[in-house]
Amino acid sequence: MMNRSAVGHGTVGGLLMGIYPALIMGDVLRTILLATIGAVVSFCVSLLLGSLTKRKK
Predict the structure, then answer these.
(1) pTM for the complete prediction?
(2) Which residue stretches of the chain are H helix?
(3) What span, in angstroms and rounded, lies between the C-alpha atoms of 12 and 20?
(4) CA distance 8 to 5
(5) Per-chain mean pLDDT for the chain
(6) Per-residue pLDDT tens over the stretch 35-57
(7) How many CA atoms lie less than 13 Å away from 36 in the CB half-sphere?
(8) CA–CA separation, 19 vs 47, rounded Å?
(9) Using alpha carbons only, what angle is made at residue 23 by residues 20 and 30, rounded to the nearest 5 degrees?
(10) What does the alpha-carbon distance between residue 26 and residue 34 come to, in Å, rounded to a whole number?
């Protein structure tokens, strides 16, 4: 009879081995690039909206 720890480790290991082929390096780099662009755009929009609201006050 297997203990719960072994079953948990087997489940996590199987999950990681199933996900691993989907993590192609190109996809990871594209995700990093898109996240960076999104953060920069969000920051710029926040600055723009902040300056617009200060002018109205």
Answers:
(1) 0.54
(2) 4-19, 25-56
(3) 12
(4) 5
(5) 80
(6) 999 999 999 999 888 888 887 65
(7) 6
(8) 38
(9) 170
(10) 12
State which amino acid sits at residue 2.
Answer: M
CA 19, CA 28: separation in Å to the nearest integer?
Answer: 13
Q: Produce one character per residue of 24-56: b if its CB has 16 or more CB atoms within 10 Å, e if not.
A: eeeeeeeeeeeeeeeeeeeeeeeeeeeeeeeee
pLDDT digits 0-9 by tens, 7-31: 777 788 888 777 777 666 667 788 8
Distances 7 to 14, 28, 39 between C-alpha atoms, Å: 10, 30, 40
Residue with structure tokens 């780099």? 29
